[in-house]
Amino acid sequence: MQKEIIEIQLAGDERTLAQLCSLACAPETLCTIIAISPQKVVGPLYWGAMLNVLIVQDQAWYLLREANRSLLSEFLRAVSEQTRVFYIADKIHFVKSMPLEAAAEYLINVQPCLLTAHNLERLKLIAMPSNGEVIRLAEPINVA
Description:
The protein is of the alpha+beta class. The chain is built from 4 helices and 9 strands. It has helices at residues 13-24, 71-78, 100-109, 120-126; strands at residues 4-7, 29-37, 40-42, 45-48, 50-57, 60-68, 85-88, 112-114, 130-133.
């Protein structure tokens, strides 16, 4: 069966956050993956930070690409009681320019970490904007 991938459209921070929280906390949600991408790249240097979220449900996957990172703290509060929330431990490649299915597959195939109270600060550090730095970007694991 072909999975349906739906892009969450940016519609103002409050509305986008409400949609994300509703989807991530729904009983049919299998897992949520949070990832941070740089906002801008010039040569080997990266600036900024953008929020990306993939919500996997039985019937469809929902993808938010390169949203304002300020949504992260409220989103984390909303999903703090959920048990299958993951994050990517490095910043990721730009997914906005990828086809929708390729972006979702990329996020599924990058090694995630289970988000817990013990590593929440690690995610917050990853979400800090880069300031013209050379950084390591997450690569998908080899899928055979």
